Structures
1.
Amino acid sequence: MTWPDEAVADGTATAPAHPSRVALFEAVRADRTGPVATRLLQLAHADSPFVRREALDLLGSMARERPWPEAVNAAEARLSDPADEVRRRAACIFGRCGQPGPVLSALVELADPVVRTILARALGPAAAHLTDDDLASVRFLAHLETLRSAPPTRWRALDAALLHDAREAAHHLADAGQLWGQALYRLRREQDTYVLVARLLADPATRDIGAELAREACHGWRAAPTRLLPLLLRCYRQRPTPALDAAIVTASISEAARRTHGALLNEVHRAPSPRARRRPSAAPVYDNASAAALLAAKPVGITRLAHAPEIFAALLDAGPLSFRQAAQLYNLTFRHPGRSQAECAPLWLRHAGPSAGPRVLALMTPQLADYGFGEYYLAGLARLGAHARPALSAVTVLIDRRTRIPVNDSTRDAEMRLDEGLLAAALGTRRAILGRASPC
């Protein structure tokens, strides 16, 4: 066996960052009519189902980088492959990279319900007219595509059609609840989503779809966990399922939901405790002399400095900053957004006096919803206390959001935790600005 046959057959060609995969991609990118590309296309028709599947995985990745009609043709030829996984890989490639007309024709002609569902999903809006298809999952996707652009007057009828097909559709569409939830979120149908979740959870046959929809709602709307957690817990008490478990774990990320339904949650489900925030290590203690010596060793144009609040606080406690120290603090405050700016802005206000307040607050308030540094800016406003009152409206806007702040993390639950962290920080900041004690 020669390369690339060997790399495909032993799986190294599909292993991320493996030298075989890198070499294969480089060879095909360099020449899609060359011997390596030609051989890879041939391997999609190999005797071994594993080799066919691996070859199609590679062809799909390459066709998504840049259009490759030969790869699409190879996938089309395997839509009726004897092996389930090969057919499904082929359907993914053909659906995503093929032209809508041939994809629709294949969907009508083929019998495999999973393959037909994959093709219908890949068609996107072009599948909207398939509402009379014999397969429930295809009808479900068609109604969902119709719903995305339908006027509000049609929503109720489309909801009824989706409810009717949901149970059967789930046999071939594993994430039906998630897809439904995404469509409802884009339409801003929060209250309707809660009603649909309750309908789905009430029927044991659609309960898992309801759990998926509830979980998607929790990822999108801040009020959803508090609203839906009791329903999820009641169903879980009757009959636990993995989908209900996942939805309860997601809903339990919400501090408001845990506070409101904590007793029921502890009674019915052992949801993991919210991840404790990593406490920062104790900062070194500086006096005027040690702080001055440290800054003297740093350039004037410094834009990042660990323990800046402790360093400059020690200097400001002892008296006015020197011209060089003030220049350093200025650069830390105004050069770049980020943690150093958030921590140093209140110090600049202390140094420059009340007249600098509007400029400092104008610097900080646009960053409050930043999921990377927003909590540091909120903590900075909290340190300013009543001096940050002009920024109170920006803090309140952050608190009063119904939808979660758009963030980017490894999982939807992790993104939800970031939003919950910003919400908790904003609530603490508002209390600090108004001079209120933290609730017990």
2.
Amino acid sequence: MTLPDARGTLTPNRPLADLTWLRVGGPADWLFQPADLPDLVAFLAGLDASVPVFPMGVGSNLIVRDGGLHAVVIRLGRGFNAIRVEGSRVIAGAAALDAHVARRAAEAGVDVTFLRTIPGSIGGAVRMNAGCYGSYVADHLVEAKVVTRAGEVVTLTPDALKFAYRHSVLPEGWVIVEATFEGEAGDPAALEVRMAEQIAKRDATQPTKERSAGSTFRNPAGFSSTGQAGDVHDLKAWKVIEEAGLRGARRGAAQMSEMHPNFLINTGGATAADLEGLGEEVRKKVFQMRGIELEWEIMRVGEPAPGESPQAD
């Protein structure tokens, strides 16, 4: 395969495990780290349209299967992580970390504090309509700047992205490069206190010191926890997993966390097949017991290793 010239870094057969939070996965055919927006635009415009493209953030919500990914994986870096605040609007590059955007906005007196405890980067947050404590990207996004697979820069509105719970609609191979959010005005000190409280609550209830990819399954109720005292847990993913007796369940070195059973963790040396296979076992048992079909929140991509199957036993 002949690739276009680029000023950024192009690496063949690049293992992806060290680029994901779960530390699993085989190689990408190519990894492209563009230098800046013009470099990305020129590369996609010149890349044969038949070549698959997979945009990858910081790998916080991703399982790459052990056989790797037959695609050009695009990972944005320093040329795409700028953050600026203009009045009540926060403009962030897709590679900026969600937590950094929340903090920078708070310093300027703009409230997008819901981003503070969301793992990952802005591109992934927009792609997945990330949210917590009752607030979602869809509630705050003004527009997203995107590069199409053909190398055209377009601006998409929330309506165009068709946001739903943990979901948006974006054509395959399109790359989010920047997002603009609208936030309410707030006192910087008060916003800082709120974020500190959110972090403390998260760390007390989630295995943040483990290798995980955040929530494994979407809540069957169709919304995230509000974090409020009156929150109802009947149709929360963690609750139905616990009721199925799967808190702490293991497959190889993969485990459903003892601390929070909707967190899939790599206890050390797990394969992607271990992790995905355990997730499928959980889905099967919950369906058998409750008639509820859990939907993956973690994205799974790539090919299994030869002879490997991630399906439940």
3.
Amino acid sequence: MTVPPILLNLARPRSVQDPLVAAERAVRDGVDGVGFADNPRLFPEPFLTAASVLAATDAALSGPCVMGLGLHHPSVVAQSCATLADRFPGRVLTVVARGESSLVNEGLPVPSQTTYQSLIAEFRARLDDLAPRTGPVLGAGSGPRTIEVNAQAVGGVLLDVGASTTVVERAVATARAARPDAACWLFLRGVVTADDEQAREAAAPILGSCASRLARSPQWYDIADDLVDRVAAVAAAHDYRKHGTADASAMQGSDERAHALIRDRFLLTGSADEIAARLRPLADLGVDGVVLAGATAGIEDRLAATVSAVRAGLASREMNR
């Protein structure tokens, strides 16, 4: 049986976890590697942290997930990727994006789609010039245009589109229509939970950031017109200075209908069997890899069970015949 590699993206503030200790534990719990979020106000530097993990653990892959090209020059990011790959050939994961949360925290404007397209092309061209033996190189995308741009320019996409079967299928189809050989990885926010209260707690650190994706592309995510403003209000209340902690959602109010919709579209919770069942329709889409969101509350405590559930759900039916 063959299943895609599964990584954990570690996105906790410096004061919350030691990244090397967390990475060692994650590998013991069954992930194939770890990514590191880029946000200079919150998290350790991703390339340096990944280097320590690759040197000290058996992780198959590690690297930035994601590195914001709105904050870091594309040539510098490409050089860092190549330098790390020279030391750890084939083991470097590099995921790039605009980097909205980092830019918000620095008080800087978010690049337009047109500007981002230029940045991503410059990154890819410089990386091709350096020609390192990397691992996966992906651009993160949540809406149709960004998915298309990343598929075409980078050659791979980390699809940050939630857990709805319909939307994930739509996203994979969009990427491969833009470039048939595009690698498609899924960014999943999920954790095994025992009850509704645990499910709500799991969502607390990330509810607003999920809501922002729904609010930016409501038709793509099939959001009813009467709920768009309510979802947008949850997004607006997210405190990116505290991203990855429950305090990020402290000002989001109590619109339970909007909260429930966001959780349903973006989070995988419930028993291991329930999570596997939700993923099973995606098993034969040709998913190339999975990154689990480390900001989901409870993921580190229940990582082994969650990884097993995701593996069971994405095990290709073709492989089991």
4.
Amino acid sequence: MPAPTHTRPHPATTGGVGTRLPWWALALPTLAFLALFALILDPSEAHATTGGGPAVAELLERAQQLLPLGR
């Protein structure tokens, strides 16, 4: 006696994005990649910092050098 087969009531959709990512879901991995990439380029500058201000400014300057967005 054959078993009954079950069919899906609605076919799966193949197009379009159903959910939107929050801004940090793309920003944080990008920031981590840029930080690690900066360490690969110049490992002599890989030292611990005591304050957060200059490190952030250096990171933004490095990112600006690597990504010529406004030029």
